[in-house]
Structures are given as C-alpha cells and as structure tokens.
Amino acid sequence: MRSPEELTVAFRASGLKVTPQRQLLFRLMHNNCTHPTADSLFNEASQVMPGISLRTVYQTLNDLTEMGELQTIDVGSGSVRFDSNISDHHHAVCDQCGAVHDVYVNRAPEMRGLDGFAVADAHIVYRGLCAACSDTVKR
Amino acid sequence: MRSPEELTVAFRASGLKVTPQRQLLFRLMHNNCTHPTADSLFNEASQVMPGISLRTVYQTLNDLTEMGELQTIDVGSGSVRFDSNISDHHHAVCDQCGAVHDVYVNRAPEMRGLDGFAVADAHIVYRGLCAACSDTVKR
DNA sequence: TTGTTAATTTTCAATAGTTGCAAATTAGAG
DNA sequence: CTCTAATTTGCAACTATTGAAAATTAACAA
Fold it and tell me: Cβ of A137 under 8 Å from any chain B Cβ?
C-alpha cells in the first residue's frame, strides 16, 4: 500500500475524509508484514487510541482493500488477514506459531485435469515450520 | 475415501457404530467431487432422511476427516468444504459459479524469500472462470 | 430374542468472525 | 463559524461451527 501521506492525499482527492482513526490505521498497516487480522489490528490501535471501535477497523480495512491498497488472504486460520504487500506473491504459514510470511515463486505451475478453465490467478499456501520454530524443535 | 462397504467394516472393526445416518453420509460423500459444505450435505441428506441433524453431519464429516478418509479445504468461501479425494492435489475455483474442481500439478514450485522454512505441504488455489461459465460469458 | 451399555444422535445454547443499521459525531468546504 | 455529508460508534443480527446434556440406539452377550 502507499504511504500514509500519499493515502491522505488520495482520500481527500476522492472526497473521503481523513480521520484520526484512518490515519492511525494507515500508519499501522504501512510496511506491516505481519498479516494482521482485523482483531489484532484493533488491539494494536486501541493501545494508541483507546475507544476506537472494531467496526471502524473493519470498515477502513475493507475500504482500503476495495481501493486496491490492501490484499486480503484467508489461510484458514478462522479470520481474514490483511496484507499491505499487493505485489504478486504467495504465503508460507507456520503450523507451530501460525506466522504468515510472504514468499515468491518464479511462476505457478500449470494445472492438469481441467479443460477450459480460464485461470486468472493462482495462490500458493505453503505449510510447515518456520525457521524460528524449527530451531525450537531441534533444541 | 473408501467405499461405504469398506467404511462399514472399518468402523465396526474400531468399535464405532454404523448408524443409518453414517451410512447415508458414506454414500453421499463416496465419489462426490462437488466439494460440498456441511450445510449443503445436510440439505441433500435431509431429502433422503428428514430429521437428520446438522450436528450429526458435522460430527460424521469431522470423524471421517480425522480418520483420513476425507480432506477439508478452505477456499475462502466462508465455510469449510469436504473432499473425498485424498490424493495430493489442488483446486480451481470458479469466480462466477463458485464451483470447486480438483486439479493436479507436476510439482509445486519452490518458494523464494524465506530461508529456513521447512515446507511440509503446498496447496495451490487457482481462480478464474470454469468452462461452463466461460461459455456463458462468450455467448 | 432380549437386555445391557457405551456410542451416537438430537437439541439447543454458546462462540467467533463479520456485517447491517441508526444515532451521534466530525472533517472539511464555503 | 456553519453546515452537511461522511464517518464513527454501539449494538443487534447473522453465519459457521462446536459444546454439553438428555434421549436414543447399535451391537454384543446371554
């Protein structure tokens, strides 16, 4: 996603208001590679701005997603995660700690067994143990 | 998953009871490639056995999954889908009609950008238009 | 065949994640 | 400083799923 400053300009330019809540969320999501859920972001935001509502967090994240500034990913952990990395990439999920990492592949392989399906997009979810958790297991 | 007959034997052998509800679900899931949700299966089952409870459907599907007879997949459609194809495969989801198809790839590509992650599994979800929906659009 | 008992089913309440709606608040234009 | 449309808040509602307890029943032994 773009920087908080750029988003501020972009929001005003399209007749959207730049509220303190939105500015906070811009900042919390910018360069955030933790793939937070709405709820975890709400908790982070609440520490800085007590009283902010979960509803507003959902609203703003959904708006940013519609504007193409965020991507949502669902790795089956029960809640949707928001990703500020909107480049074409994939994800690796640690079975131990649940962390989600961005990963890249040269190109997704072509599929077999289905004729006439027009592929628009392919998303790969890798599962396994992240480096930190592998270390813990070894020790 | 194995055939209803084989499952019947297997269930009895492990001290599990073979109830009419379970037999029905064995039959409904056998060779079922529609990737049904618990709810859609419940609807199907209800037509044959009115009064069967959704809870029983969930229970039985979860049991079959734990026994390795079914796989669950979550393509982000809101509810978990059950797959009687337990071979190593992937899925193609139609953005138009929502249908989920089994697909195969030679091998999932290696990922980049993450050192030390021990990959245990990779699942690819392709999105796009299925053959039937592509036809509709063209016409 | 009939009892017995542990497994299963049913019912219903509870939970988590998310969205809809109406009232209260407020950013930003004039 | 006012005004108004956009936004936030609070809360009810909704969907998918699970927990728990009471009622039922499959399957074994006699």
Answer: no
